[in-house]
Amino acid sequence: MPEQPTSVFKIVINGSIRDVWREITRTDAPIACFFNNRMHLGPGGLAPGTKLAMRTPDSKYTGVVGEILEFDPPRRFSHTFRFTNLNDPPCAVVYDLREVPEGTEFTLTIRDIPVGTKTAKQMTSGGRMIVNTLKSVIETGRPAFGIRMLYVLFKILPAPKACRSENWPVAG
Fold this sequence. Notes:
Elements: E1 7-13, H1 17-25, E2 38-41, E3 51-55, E4 62-72, E5 76-83, E6 91-100, E7 103-111, H2 118-140, H3 145-156
Antiparallel strand pairs: 1-7, 2-3, 3-4, 4-5, 5-6, 6-7
């Protein structure tokens, strides 16, 4: 079996490791760098083995589901990742944080990307957007103008019925 590819996106953010960690693990509000979705967790909370779902702010639709693989505050958070509108196998995402003199070095690693799938195409293009949006949110308090307009578009466009949150429970 051929080795599945890995993509790595790295950026230095002028902000504390604590602030970056809080932003990528928050469950109390939408996470701007994750396409303005809100993270919902199973009963285990932020711990390995817990199911997670990234849902629209109104919780009606779920775009991504996964299971937490690692949770080592404030250095590493990883989970499996599967788009709910695609029938592709999951990949894994790893967020690594490291304090540097300029702030926080943030690395997004996407492992086991299913070759030749729509997931592979979306993850490759979305990785750069995620790290740049995270940098903007931490440094300025909000995403760049173009990203904010994209989020407005997301609210207007209908989501597939397969993405309805009742199809993707996190409990149990």
